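Hi V.,

You were right to ask for the full record rather than a summary. Here it is.
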Amino acid sequence: MLESLRKSDRSVSELVREIHICQPGISKQLRTLHEAGLVTVRREGRQRIYSLRAEPLKQAAAWLRFYEQHWDESLNALETLLDQRKSPRRKERR
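Predicted structure:
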């Protein structure tokens, strides 16, 4: 759904046709995204048009990048430690 909204603003009926989920399911997801601040809604006649708000997603991506770097560093350090521990054992077996 976010990918569809990234391309352009959509109504509920457009999202139903594009994503192949029933209207109540689309509406529930849109309500959740709206409450999370990830989409905005405006009225055009009888329809509600939904738009993606990318800024919160950019903030989340930046937060995740920080932790991704942290975990990469931690896992690399663990790999180095395990490699160091393996080396003496190999020498002892010879």
